[in-house]
Amino acid sequence: MLQLTSCNRMLTILLILLSPYLLDDQKSRFLFHDMSAEVVDSNPYSRLMALQRMGIVENYERIREFSVAIVGIGGVGSVAAEMLTRCGIGRLLLYDYDKVELANMNRLFFRPEQVGMTKTDAAVQTLSDINPDVVLESYTLNITTVQGFETFMSSLKNKTFRPSKEGSGVDLVLSCVDNYEARMVVNQACNELNQTWMESGVSEDAVSGHIQLLIPGETACFACAPPLVVASGVDERTLKREGVCAASLPTTMGVVAGLLVQNTLKFLLKFGYVSPYLGYSSLKDYFPTMAMKPNPQCSNAACLQRQKEYILAKPARDAAANAKMEAEASAAAADVPLHVDNEWNISVVDDSEQENTGGTSSDALPEGLTRELPSADEFPKHSTYGATDTAVDDLEDLRRQLDALNAD
Fold it and tell me: Distance between CA atoms of 247 and 349, rounded to whole angstroms?
């Protein structure tokens, strides 16, 4: 019995020592260097590649080329990171300085055994197990500090992980922070880098939220239309009361994260319509949407510079867009045959063409069919030969009969 217990202890110690290698070997078995559309249970991308087969996305495999930065790995950011990981995104950059707490267990993604870990480390641990194909970069820092902002800016400019892809940096930044100060930092960085980004948020009462697309120079930046509280000069940090925390529902945050990632996929893969602003009110299931133009008197100098660049480039951009639309329209008209999939060989003929050619409709019916009613265009024709003489004789006969009656 003592020997058996010792063997069990030795086996347990051996498994603990070898667990990192066993996990790495297990991950390698799920590593797919190329996306496959093969419909088998062992292919993690078959359901995603079905979007391409169904014509929703032109080339879904391009998802592996994109880099997305997520700032704030909280209730929205962590779920958005998981969704993008399951979608097969190429690279994720994760930014947060906070640690996982038991108070976070009302949200999705984090687990009790991760309490005490930084949110970035916990996210890397979970996401690498879900999909080892995704390249993960974590930054445990506060972007609102001077050093944190510099690191944030340099990381966004880092060259892409795929040498075959042109350009450098990230393709999209997702802001999932919970305070105005951090949003303004993301806004400043993206304006300076001319970087497109999406902002998201959930209200403190946990029953509403929103997402917003921000393209420097083309749409309003976050400083163009500040919230009323901030515009009034009130420090948002003074609004929080002692012992009172904001409410949070995993349902509301899950809906906002889903809308955020859905629009991210549409933006990157160029399908569907990307909402410039989309709100969500869970109390009435209300989804307001609108578009906001940049403020010519914005307080952000980088935003004003991007606006000038956008206005100067607008004529050339519009001309290129019109030329592209005309080329696509002419190509579509040339490629699509008239009456495609016309099983009954039905054709449409212009009445004027029919009159010019002297064509007439045929009264012939298929074999086995007969007309039950006369044609509406035909009238019964009676012979009129001798009709006038008969009418005169009848009148003379009637006159003689009347004269005879009168004589009596």
Answer: 67
Range of the domain at 313: 26-233+244-317
Quick count: other Cβ atoms within 10 Å of Cβ 299?
A: 11
Q: Which CATH number belongs to the domain containing residue 248 in this structure?
A: 3.40.50.720
How do residues 154-163 score in pLDDT, each as one tens digit? 999 987 777 7
* Separation of CA 357 from chain center: 52
pLDDT score recorded for residue 7: 52
Tokens coding 148: 């944190």
Residue of 7, 245, 298, 303 marked catalytic: 245
| Residue 298 designated active-site | no
Residues 6+ apart with CB under 8 A from 249: 106, 206, 207, 282
pLDDT tens track for 276-324: 999 999 999 999 999 989 999 999 999 999 999 999 998 888 888 888 8
Angle, helix 180-193 to helix 146-157, in steps of 10 degrees:
40
Going by C-alpha positions, the residue among 22, 37, 81 that lies closest to residue 264 is 81
Three-state secondary structure string covering 309-329: HHHHHHHHHHHHHHHHHHHHH
| CA–CA dist 8, 31 (Å, integer) | 33
Examine residue 350 and state whether it is found in any structural domain, yes or no: no
Please give the distance of CA 101 from its chain centroid, rounded to a whole number: 33
**pTM of the predicted model, to two decimals?**
0.71
SS3 69: strand
State the virtual CA torsion across 137, 142, 146, 148 in degrees, nearest 10: -10
Asked whether residue 405 is assigned to any structural domain, the reply reads no
| 47-51-56 Cα angle (round to 5) | 165
